[in-house]
Amino acid sequence: MDLFEKCRMFTRADETREKGYYPYFHAIEESEGPVVMIEGRKVIMAGSNNYLGLTAHPKVKEASINAIKKYGTGCSGSRYLTGTLDIHVELEKRLAKFMGKEDCLLFSTGFQTAQGIIPVLVQKGEYIVSDKDNHASIVAGILVAGGMLSYSSDTQSLVRYKHNDMKHLEFVISQLPLEEGKLIVSDGVFSTSGEIVNLPELIRIARKYNARVMIDDAHAVGVIGVGGRGTASHYNLVKECDLTMGTFSKTFASLGGFVVGDHKVIDYLKHSAPALIFSASPTPASVAAALAALDILEQEPERIEKLMNNARMMRKGLKEMGYHVNDYDSAVVSAIIGDTEKTLIMWKALFDEGVFVNAFIRPGVPPGMEMLRTSYMATHEKEHLEKILDAFKKVGKSVGAI
Ligand code: PMP
Question: What is the helix (H) or strand (E) element at residue 335, kind and residue range?
Answer without folding.
Answer: strand 332-336
